[in-house]
Design goal:
This protein is mostly beta strands and 306 residues long. Helices cover 2% and strands 50% of the residues. It has a five-stranded mixed sheet with strand order 9-8-7-6-25, with no helix packed on it. Strands 1-24-23-22 form a four-stranded antiparallel sheet, with no helix packed on it. Strands 2-3-4-5 form a four-stranded antiparallel sheet, with no helix packed on it. A hairpin with a 5-residue loop joins strand 4 and strand 5.
């Protein structure tokens, strides 16, 4: 790369194959994320700088914090579970029948009301079928909300909890829905933004001003969109595959960017020595919101979902 790039405030060495799902835990002053392809859960302690890695029983696409608990609600490749990091045990909440080969759970995030949204993806470009969006409600029930997708990504909600963002990466589209805060239903889908130039919308989050930040795979950038879909700011990063973002730190004024080295050639890896690490930036005048936690009772039982 031959661009003048902003210098990261810090770099967390991780060498992830596919770092994803990064989120900040205010209570523990720690950053969590997953290396999907390595089936690892990673935790960075802010005060000590220590990175802890936990081997997982399955590939973990995304996860969320649980109110009043150290457990995580986790979207593994073949289902949604309550995962206990201390004991490394899990209890299945739902294992939907995808009905399509080469399908796994991918991105996910909590909404402001404490529901967990997560969606699937088709891993094989040539495979027929469609991915879907699911939600674990606060009563513990899991429901299907959207189909006809290829790779579900970029899930996040507006500060008031009334808008949900979803990216379908291969189609280079970021959608926005009206989200009923009371019953969690989605309405009035609209195209919020499109990406161009070989950049695909990946993981995302919303800042305290209601602007949506999108990590753009293949584009070497993180883009800030205003609530009306206008590009307000572009942060160029020294890797080609940024995957997700989170705001964190004691004042939530740090932007954490997870990245990947998956599929990169030896030359590309030489050109991108920090591919797979977590990049940390200070963005003047921007702060994040507290990461919502799951609120409600979880039903740990295997059953099909429509």
């Amino acid at each position: 790369m031959h661009r003048d790039l902003p210098t990261p405030h810090a770099i967390i060495p991780a060498a992830n194959v596919l770092g994803e799902g990064v989120l900040w835990d205010d209570a523990a002053a720690a950053l969590w994320w997953t290396d999907i392809q390595s089936s690892e859960l990673l935790r960075y302690e802010y005060e000590t700088g220590r990175v802890q890695r936990t081997r997982l029983p399955n590939r973990l696409g995304s996860f969320g914090l649980v109110e009043g608990s150290t457990d995580l609600i986790a979207a593994f490749a073949d289902g949604i579970a309550l995962y206990h990091p201390v004991t490394a045990s899990l209890q299945w909440i739902s294992r939907p029948s995808h009905g399509v080969a080469h399908t796994r759970f991918n991105d996910g995030r909590m909404d402001r009301q404490g529901r967990f949204w997560t969606g699937t993806m088709i891993e094989n470009d040539a495979a027929e079928g469609e991915a879907a969006l699911y939600c674990v409600n606060t009563d513990g029930a899991t429901g299907s909300h959207e189909r006809g997708l290829r790779i579900t990504n970029g899930l996040c909600t507006s500060p008031d909890g009334r808008r949900l963002y979803l990216a379908d990466s291969p189609r280079s589209i970021i959608y926005r829905y009206a989200l009923d805060p009371d019953d969690g239903t989605l309405h009035d889908r609209e195209i919020f933004a499109r990406t161009t130039g070989g950049a695909y919308p990946d993981g995302a989050n919303v800042d305290a001003d209601g602007c949506m930040w999108s990590a753009q795979w293949g584009g070497s950038r993180v883009v800030r969109y205003t609530p009306d879909g206008r590009i307000d700011q572009t942060l160029d990063v020294p890797v080609s595959q940024p995957t997700c973002i989170a705001f964190g730190g004691p004042d939530r004024d740090l932007l954490f960017v997870s990245t990947a080295r998956d599929g990169l050639s030896a030359q590309a890896l030489a050109d991108e020595p920090h591919a797979g690490d977590v990049l940390v930036y200070r963005v003047p005048g921007v702060r994040g919101l507290p990461e919502p936690r799951f609120r409600g009772a979880l039903r740990t039982a295997e059953r099909p979902v429509g």
